[in-house]
Amino acid sequence: MSRRASLPGASELFRLTGSSPAFDAEPAPEPREQPRQAPSARKSSLPDNGAARRGSGRQKHDAKITVYVSGDELLAMEHARLTLRGSHDLVVDRGRLVREAVAVLLADFDQHGADSVLVKRLRDGGVGDVGGHDGLQAEQAERN
Questions:
Q1: Which of 47, 106, 107, 128 has the fewest CB atoms below 10 angstroms from its CB?
Q2: Burial category of 42 from C-beta neighbours within 10 Å (exposed 0-12, middle 13-18, buried 19 and up)
C-alpha cells in the first residue's frame, strides 16, 4: 500500500464539464490596431495645458516599466515618501510618488517647452542634486 495520496491529473482538472454561459457566449471581437499617426496628429490627443496632466493615482494600471535608480536616489525617494507621510499626512507608495513626479515634470514640459525643467536638465547631462528638489526650485525661480 502506497503512502502517497492519489491526486487527479491535469486532464481531469482542466476538462470541460458541460455547458456554461461563459462558454456559450460569442468571443469578443479582436481589438483593431489603430493606424500609426504622425507626431503632429498624436499631439492633439494630449492635454493642451500643464494643469490638465495629473498622476493616475491608485488604480489598476495596464502598462509597466522598470526603472533602475541609484541607492542615493532610492534613499531620497523614501525620505520624500516618509516626509509626505509624517509632515503632510499623505500616505503614498513609491509607484504613486513616481507617477505624480512624472506628471509634474511632463506638465511643466507641456507648458514651457524648451524652457522646461526637463529640457534644461537633459541638456545639462541630467546630472544634478540627488534630492532634486533644490535644483528644481532654483530652476523654477529662475524661470519666474
A1: 47
A2: exposed
Length of the chain: 144
Single out the residue of 69, 55, 52 nearest to residue 132, CA to CA: 69
Per-residue pLDDT of the chain (144 residues; tens, 9 = 90+): 678 888 877 777 777 776 655 555 555 555 555 555 554 444 444 545 545 566 666 667 788 899 999 999 999 999 999 999 999 999 999 999 999 999 999 999 999 999 999 999 999 985 554 444 455 555 556 665
Amino acid at site 17: T
Contacts of 79 (CB under 8 A, 6+ apart): 131
What is the secondary structure of 95-130 as a DSSP string? Answer: HHHHHHHHHHHHHHHHHHGGGSHHHHHHHTTS---S
